[in-house]
Every structure is written in C-alpha cells, then in structure tokens.
Design a protein that fits this description.
The complex is a heterodimer. Chain A is an all-alpha fold. Chain A contains 14 helices and no strands. Chain B contains 13 helices and two strands; from the N terminus they run H-E-E-H-H-H-H-H-H-H-H-H-H-H-H. Classes of the chains: A mainly alpha, B mainly alpha. Chains A and B meet through helix 1, helix 4, helix 5, helix 6 and helix 10 of A and helix 1, helix 3, helix 4, helix 5 and helix 6 of B.
Chain lengths: 273, 316
C-alpha cells in the first residue's frame, strides 16, 4: 500500500495485536481448563491461571474414551471421501470443459442449478434411500456420495480451470498417441495441482467437521468420528470439562497441519505458472 | 474427426457424477416434493395419506386459524434474524481484518494464522469452548465482568454495580442469539482469506494512478479497492447467507442441553419433526422446500443487484 508512515505502521500493529489477543481468548481459556483437575475446573470463582498443572489430562483423553479410535475413524472417512471427490469431480469437470458429449448444455444447467440447491431438501429422501439399502450404521452414506461427483462446487471449480488450458496441449498429446485417460491422468491433473489441493483441503475440512450426517447414520459409538466423539465427554456421567477442552484442542491439530501444508503447495503451484 | 470408442467419450468421464446427479439429486428432489403433500410416519408405504397443501398452510403465518404451527414460524424468524446479523457482521469483520493484513509488513503471516485458526475447529469443539467460556458461573467472561463491576462499585454513586446481575449468554433465552452472532464473527477466517486473495490481485498501478490524480486514502478505498473487491463480497455474502440459513450443529448441541426456544433454528426444528417421534416425514419435507424458497428469496435479489454493481475486470 501507498503512504504507510511509521506511526501508521505502529498503529496497525497495535490494532492487530489487540484483535489477536481477543480472538485467542477462547483458546487460552480452553488450554487453561484442559490442564486443570476437574475440581479446579469447577472452582468458584474461576481463575485463568493453573496452580496444579495436569499434563496427564491429555493422556486421560485417550483412556476414558477411545479417542484414538475416533481420530482414526475420522481419518478413514475423510480420506476415502476426499479421494472420491477429487477423482470423480475432476473427471466430470474435464468432460464438461473439453469433451464432446450429448446433452452437454442440459448437464451444465443441472450442475449450476444443483450448486444452489440447499442440502436439507435432500436430507429426508437420502435417509429413506440409505435406510432401504441397509446402509444405516455403516460409513457408506458418508463416503459413497463423494464417489458420485463429490459436490457440484468441486466439479464447477475443475471445469473452470480445465477450460483455461489451451486446446493445442491436448492435440499434441493425442498426436503422440495418448488416450484421453492418459492425457487426463498424466498431463491435465498435474497441471491442475493448485485446484486439486484446494478441492482436497476444503473437502477434507468439510468431512472432518461433518456433524449432521454422522449423527443421522451412526449409532454405535465405536464408529464415531471425532465430531461426535467429542460430545461424549459431556454426556457420560456429568461433564469432564477439562478432558473435553483437551480433546477439542487435539482434534484441531490435524486440520492445522493440513492447512499449512496445503497453503505451501497452493502458493508454490500458483507461482509455478 | 477420428471415431473414438465409448471409453474415450465425455460421458465415460462424467458418468460417476451423472449417476450421482440422478440418484442423489433429481430423484430425491422428486421424492421430497411428493412427500411434502402427504402425511407419513416413514414406517410403511400403506400409511401414506395425501393431505394436499395442508403442510404448506401450516407454514404460512397469514393463512389464519389454529392450523399455523407457531414454533415453525418462530424457528424461521429466529433463523432469518440470525442469518442477517451474523453474516453481515461476519463479513465486516472479515473485510476489516483483510484490509489490515494486506500490507508487506513482518508478522502478517502470524496474524493471518491466528485469525484463521477458529475456522478450523469443528462445530462441536467451537460450541464446547464457547459455552464453557460464557458459562454464567464457571466461565471466564462473567468472571472478568464481575471483576470490572466490583471495581466500578468502589466509586461513590456506582455501588449498584456490586449487585448487578450478569448476562446468562448462551444459557438465557434473550442472550443466546447475540452470543451466537458474536461466535459467528469470531469464525470470520474463511471469508477473510477470500478477501485477502482478492486484495492481493488488485494491480498496484491502479493505486499509483489514483494517487497521481490526487485521490486521498478514502477515495482510493472507495474507487479502487471496493470495486476490485466487489466480486469477493458478492461471493462471501451469497455463500454466507445460504450456509447461515441452514445452521444446525450449534443449535442442536446447545438446544439439547437447555431446551431454550431462543435457540430454535429452522433446521433444528425440521430435524426434530423428521427424526423424532412421531416421525412426520411429510411435514418435514414441506419445511425443507419452504426453506429453499426463503433462501432463494433472500439470495436471488442479492445476485440480481450484484450483477449490476459488481465490477469484473474482464466483461463476459
């Protein structure tokens, strides 16, 4: 920006620091509670400082409930769903962007229309369908839809990106004897790396945080993902609020790592072209 | 053109998505629309009975009589009010933060990370943290307020502060909505990144040209930054409204504990109608379609106005 004087810069830093401190208060309070004993957590008046630091709470999170299992369940669901979303939405995006297809206009209109359709209209029919298929209580309702297009928004993103790639790239590859599948796999997808990363990271976050669908389809708590598992520290025999806060903090760590790695690849990919 | 096999056709690539479009979108839409005109407990097909538009009349507050469901109307007004306040304040916070962060200074990455961090929490973790932070008795917020009040009460004439009743936040019917709006403002990291990406694409030459023409800070903001930012505003506004109108997780988690009707969101009420006894699948389906129409009524005008106001660098 133009005209950033030194006083101006100092004011910006001050303002950002104050906002950052306010934004961090919920985290600070959670960390503080996660290190207290249960009696101290429910002491009155409450205090931010911890006299008797209990690092063992972070171990107890895994002892009292199968939290490791919850994390693993979430990872399995999220990875299976994200793989499906990236593969099938990029394939559909490729077809809609560059391939001859009967009724392409109609399909494209359907894509745009389904972008705007809120999911709750489909909630009940989906439940009835999965119930009649005997899928309730399994991970199939959480994973299979991702392998059938993986979300209109993702298809749309891939289509937009693939349209921006020049046609002669494809013609050259075809002249060299490549099939369309080889072109898609070995030329198009590597070129689309920033989009692949964006779609993968955003749908990973979506599936990691998903709450309503697991709530509807899973009843056995050993199959719970993290989002449902967290609640159990609250509902079983009172609230272990210290463990609840520790578990909440643990659950966000994988997403922080994914986003940091994702940002790097995304930035590198954008600089690359 | 060389004749290609079916395996090389566009349909082969799009097939999984097409199957999904038919089985997961088109057919369910037809089923849902049909069910919205029926009474059904979901337990067997012989129990379906047609009721015509009765479900829709229950959701139309001006249809008169006892047929209107007051809780559904309450849930809808709660949700619309929440969405308007939460989304507009969330976007304002996101834009202010993005503008503050958009400069080549050291440490901006650290601030960006801090502001984005809440966005990565799952809704369960967010709700747990906030209800503990705002717990009227054991939470940090009321503790802080109590200290401030006690301090104020030491001054002459202000001793009323010593006995003042502190807010119940998420635990009271009047306080829960403002607290949820505040929580949504805290979660502005996602839109902030969209604004930041848009700001970083604004060509420097535009600012230089404007400065040469004698434009001050404010005029540069209104005539250079805002037009360049307007596509991002439209995107965040539309996406934000659509998602806020479907708010479920927070309401469900908090409502289950307190049965506080201030937290009665539309999706929560729909869920309870559909999946709790007596399962009223038909009424819930009608509710879903009404919500779809309400969202369209909110979003379509925004898009129409947006088409005129938003500045795109490349006109199509």
């Amino acid at each position: 920006m133009i005209g950033c004087g030194r006083r101006h810069t100092r004011a910006v830093y001050l303002l950002l620091t104050v906002i950052a401190i306010i934004a961090l208060i919920p985290f600070v309070w959670s960390v503080s509670t996660s290190l207290k004993s249960l009696e101290d957590a429910y002491a009155f008046p409450p205090s931010l400082t911890v006299d008797d630091v209990r690092w063992s709470n972070y171990g107890d999170v895994f002892e009292k409930l199968p939290f490791g299992r919850f994390l693993l369940n979430s990872a399995v669901i999220a990875l299976a769903a994200v793989t499906g979303a990236v593969v099938t939405s990029s394939m559909a995006g490729y077809a809609l962007a560059r391939l001859p297809m009967r009724g392409k206009r109609v399909w494209f209109v359907l894509l745009v229309a389904s972008l705007m359709l809120p999911s709750q209209v489909l909630l009940i029919p989906h439940f009835l369908m999965y119930e009649s298929l005997g899928w309730v209580g399994t991970y199939k309702p959480l994973i299979v839809p991702a392998w059938l297009g993986g979300g209109a928004f993702n298809v749309f993103l891939f289509r937009q990106y693939f349209r921006s790639i020049a046609m002669d790239v494809e013609e050259a590859a075809v002249l060299d004897g490549a099939t369309r599948w080889q072109f898609y796999r070995f030329v198009l997808m590597p070129m689309a790396k920033p989009v692949v990363v964006a779609v993968a990271v955003l749908s990973l976050l979506y599936h990691w945080q998903a709450f309503l669908n697991p709530l509807l389809y899973l009843s056995d708590f050993r199959k719970y993902p993290v989002s449902l598992g967290l609640r159990m520290y609250q509902t079983m025999a009172g609230t272990w609020v210290n463990l609840l806060m520790a578990a909440s903090l643990i659950a966000v760590v994988p997403m922080v790592i994914v986003f940091f790695v994702g940002f790097r690849v995304f930035d590198a990919g954008r600089r690359g072209d | 053109m060389v004749k290609r096999s079916w395996r090389e056709s566009g349909v082969a690539f799009a097939l999984p998505w097409m199957v999904g479009m038919v089985t997961l979108t088109l057919v369910p839409m037809a089923v849902s629309l049909t069910l919205s005109f029926a009474r059904w407990d979901g337990l067997g097909f012989d129990s379906i009975g047609w009721v015509g538009s009765a479900h829709y009349e229950r959701l139309w507050p001006w249809s008169g009589g006892e047929s209107v469901d007051p809780r559904a109307v309450r849930a809808l007004t709660n949700t619309v009010a929440y969405s308007l306040f939460a989304v507009s304040l969330n976007l304002m916070a996101a834009m202010v933060l993005a503008l503050l962060l958009n400069r080549r200074l050291r440490g901006m990455v650290v601030f960006r990370t801090v502001f984005f961090l809440p966005y990565l929490l799952s809704s369960v973790a967010t709700v747990m943290m906030w209800s503990w932070l705002f717990n009227p008795r054991f939470g940090l917020v009321n503790r802080g307020l109590r200290v401030v009040c006690d301090f104020l009460a030491m001054w002459p004439g202000l001793d009323g502060f010593a006995t003042i009743e502190l807010p119940g936040w998420l635990y009271s019917e009047a306080g829960c909505m403002p607290t949820l709006v505040l929580m949504h403002v805290w979660l502005c990291g996602g839109p902030m990144l969209v604004f930041l990406a848009a700001l970083q694409r604004v060509p420097m030459s535009l600012y230089e040209a404007a400065a040469l023409d004698g434009a001050g800070r404010w005029r540069r903001f209104w005539h250079v930054t805002m037009p360049q930012l307007s596509p991002a505003v439209l995107f965040n506004l539309v996406i934000g409204l659509i998602f806020a109108m479907q708010t479920f997780d927070r309401a469900y988690l908090l409502y289950n504990r307190s049965q506080n009707d201030g937290l009665l969101f539309y999706m929560l009420y729909l869920y309870r109608i559909a999946f709790e006894t007596p399962f009223r699948i038909g009424f819930a389906s009608a509710m879903a379609w009404v919500l779809f129409v309400v969202i369209a009524v909110m979003v379509v005008p925004v898009l129409i106005v947006g088409r005129r106001v938003v500045f795109y660098a490349v006109r199509r």
